[in-house]
Design brief:
The protein is α+β, with helices and mostly antiparallel strands. It contains three helices and four strands, in the order βαββααβ. It has a four-stranded antiparallel beta sheet with strand order 2-3-1-4. A hairpin with a 5-residue loop joins β2 and β3. The longest helix has 21 residues. The radius of gyration is 13 Å and the shape is globular. The two termini are 16 Å apart.
């Protein structure tokens, strides 16, 4: 397994649309968390984006997860960062 960090940048012109899709997005994230594929997730306090940490087999699996996220077809974010992460002090 590998850990990946994803930073989303929200499209501020799509805030209303994002708020409409957010319940489905959060439900999807809760499912990923229960499956052990999502380590941590949350928006920035200024609501300009979010940071998510995934534990997946590889980048292909992560890209599949992102494609299925309700935020993706809604077009409410830009992928700012997608990087494999090597934590020195992992989450407990």
């Amino acid at each position: 397994m590998a850990q990946f960090v994803v930073q989303l940048r929200f499209d501020v012109t799509q805030t209303e649309q994002r708020m409409e899709v957010r319940p489905a997005h959060r439900e999807y994230l809760a499912t990923l968390k229960a499956e052990g594929r999502l380590v941590a997730a949350g928006p920035f306090t200024d609501q300009t984006g979010a940071l998510l940490v995934y534990d997946v087999a590889d980048e292909a699996e992560l890209r599949d997860i992102l494609a299925k996220d309700p935020y993706t077809p809604a077009g409410v974010y830009e992928l700012a960062t997608l990087a494999e992460w090597q934590p020195l002090f992992p989450f407990s």
